[in-house]
Amino acid sequence: GASPTTGCVPGAAPDCRDASDCTEDHCDASTGCFHVPNDGACDDGAACTTDSCGASGCRNIPDSTMCNSGCTTGAVCMPGVGCTGGGTMSCAADGNPCTSDPTTCDVSTGMCLHPLRDEDGDGHIIARATGTSGTVTCGGDDCNDMNGDVHPGAAEVCNSIDDNCDGRIDEGGVCATLPDTCANEQRISLLGGGGGTPLSGSASGNNTSLADNYRPSCGGTGGHDAVYFVDLPPGALGAVDVTVSTDNPGTSFDTVLAAQVGGTCGTYTRACQDDIGGGNNRSTITFCVGAGSGTGARVHILVDGYDGNASSLGTYSVSVSVSPHPGGVCM
Question: How far apart are CA 225 and CA 243, in angstroms?
């Protein structure tokens, strides 16, 4: 208070505390109380809230849009908790026959992806597709996007289709001579045999364009068949074992093998085998040819499809090996 003789004397300091627990309270001798907000003291740990300090305390304003970036939708921001709920954005088909559906969402952009179709996974985009308005051009070069063996650069084989998408079918003489009948029976040359190793040879092809000309005796046939022969060496001593097999990666369908030693091509009664065993629908036959008939004998071989439907069409690879029979005599 004031004194007529001494002037102003010290009094009680003002109480500068306010109603907010997030402000720093100060007193200035010239201006009085003032309050500095401390926004950092209001951090609620939720990244989706805007945190600030005011005269009445902390404010944590939620922003749910921050919870729905990328492919997330329907999430809600809760102060002190963060983003809750929500799910992955659903992408509808775009109605374009050239793109793959259902589509997926790209997390980095939050956009629905509609990739151009490569249904057979051969690395070539479909050239044309049929939609509700008819056939449209897709900009790719794959003339058959449902067959991974058909695309530009593929090898043309004799199968009545355009394998390399050049607009031509079975060009390049691939069907010039087919092992289709006994008139076109093709030789499998036997090589090796030195140092005790077996003689061996092989052939491969595609039976799609072949006919069903012959029926082996072990049943389950009726597919398109191919015919081959091997000539046993005239200098063979004693009996030999002849093994014929389609059990290799070059064979893509269920095969039946049969053979005939000597005689006329087309009978195939010497040996016959449908499957190697459970789970393996390829075939292997082994039969002994005696010294008398084996010297210079011709072995006729039939590679047949099992059941005559689409599953018995495709590529085949047949191998032949000839080795001495233990004991030198067929039993």
Answer: 19
